[in-house]
Amino acid sequence: MAVYRIQWVDSDRELMLGWHQDEIHMDLGECHFQLDYRGDTIHRTEAAFLDRHPRNVFDHRIAQLVDVVDGLTWTDGQPAVPSDTIG
Predict the structure, then answer these.
(1) Distance of alpha carbon 56 from alpha carbon 71, whole angstroms
(2) Mean pLDDT of 22-49
(3) pLDDT at 50
(4) Residues near 83 by Cβ (< 8 Å), separated by ≥ 6?
(5) DSSP assigned state of 28
(6) CB–CB of 13/78 below 8 Å?
(7) Average pLDDT in the 60-73 region?
């Protein structure tokens, strides 16, 4: 299995979000999206498996990352991302 992490980290806000393909959360399929805040995972969901070729995955996810970061909202001090941007 190929393994990758495409993440955006904002260390000032203790925020990390991105896509992971790994063997840790196999219940979520081959790929998942994860949002961590202040050391806790506050959102983890299955994401579309795109391709086995690393360059194809990177190009697609980097393009998606702009939409995810732009769509980031804060409610009662908690970050959230719209589900339609996760893919």
Answers:
(1) 23
(2) 89
(3) 79
(4) 45
(5) G
(6) no
(7) 92
Residue type, 14: E
Tokens at residue 3, please?
A: 């393994």
Written as six digits, the tokens of 84 are 């339609």
Residue the block writes with tokens 């995972």: 41
Best CA proximity match to 21, nearest among 74, 75, 63, 60: 60
Residues 6+ apart with CB under 8 A from 60: 50, 51, 87
Between CA 60 and CA 50 the distance in angstroms is 8
* Phi, psi (degrees; rounded to nearest 5) at 69: -65, -40
H/E run at residue 58: helix 54-71
- Please name the helix (run of DSSP H) or strand (run of DSSP E) that holds residue 20, with its range, or none: strand 15-21
Q: What is the pTM of this model?
A: 0.86
For residue 35, the tally of other CB atoms under 10 A from its CB is 21
